[in-house]
Structures are given as C-alpha cells and as structure tokens.
Amino acid sequence: MNNTALFLRLRKGLFISALALTALTGCQSGKWGFPYIAPVQQGNWITEENVALLQKGMTPDQVRYALGSPTLTDIFRPDRWDYPYYYQPGYGEPVSRNFSVWFVNGVLDRWEGDQQPNFQPYEQKAAARTVESTASTAEAAASQVETAPLE
C-alpha cells in the first residue's frame, strides 16, 4: 500500500471523527443535550398538613414526629430548630423555603416560616398540571363571560 492511499484513509477517518465530535457538541443545548444536569434536593419537605399538626406546648418528640428531624440545630441556640429546604432542578428555577420552631422551657412556643406546599414531592408534576388546568379553566370561563351577549 502506498503512502498516498494511507494518507487518504487517515484523512477520511479524521474527517469522520471530527464530524461525529461536532454532532455531539451541537447537542449540548436544550433538554435533550449533554451534559446531564442532575436535580439536587436538600433539606426537609414540610407540607401544610405537617404545620397544621403543631400546637403550643408540644414536646420536642411530638414536633419531631410532626415535622421530622430538624436539618439544623444550633449549638448556641438549642431551643431553635430550623427546617430549610432547597431544590435545584436540572433545568429551571430553584425552590427555597425555610421554617423554624422555637421551644421555651422544653415545650413548643412558636413557629414561623415560608408558605409550605400542600402536596408531597412525588406529586409535584400532578400539582403543576392541576394548577395549569385550573388556570386554563379560569381563562376559559373569563372569555365566556366577556363574549356572552347582553340582554
């Protein structure tokens, strides 16, 4: 085999490799591309139902049963428990919520924090579809009211 034929085969192989690499790097944009961005969830998922269980005078064990173990307990303030939550989806806006409870003399005194969802994490897509369908139903009802003939 002469040098010209070897050079042409090598050139053809390099061209095909460069073409494949270009195709793969062109797929980086959008939801289907590379690299895969894993969703990151940190903290405690608390719902409105969990918060509704809280009552003044509860013991720490009762609060732990209602809300779960706290993510943060401060060694300088052991009477305060914090329940932060952070979710960074692979694509989209991050979600961040905070919730804190305070104990006085070993019993629950008060609690405060962000508005908590009324669904579990595995129900997020169903809850989003419900919100979208409710919004579209409301828009449809509003357009019917606007187009209704006056008598």
From TrEMBL:
Q: Which segments constitute the Outer membrane protein assembly factor BamE domain? A: 43-112
Q: Gene3D superfamilies from the entry?
A: 3.30.1450.10
Using the record, list the residue span of the signal peptide; answer none if the entry has no such feature. 1-20
Q: List locations, semicolon-separated.
A: Cell outer membrane
Q: Compositional bias (Low complexity) spans?
A: 127-151
| Keyword Signal carried by entry | yes
Q: Which UniProt keywords apply?
A: Cell outer membrane, Membrane, Signal
Region annotation (Disordered) maps to 124-151
Which Pfam families does this UniProt record tie to the protein? BamE
Q: What is known about its subunit structure?
A: Part of the Bam complex.
> Which PANTHER family does this UniProt record tie to the protein?
OUTER MEMBRANE PROTEIN ASSEMBLY FACTOR BAME
Recorded family membership: Belongs to the BamE family.
- What does the UniProt record say this protein does? Part of the outer membrane protein assembly complex, which is involved in assembly and insertion of beta-barrel proteins into the outer membrane.
Entry protein name = Outer membrane protein assembly factor BamE
Source organism of this protein record: Advenella alkanexedens
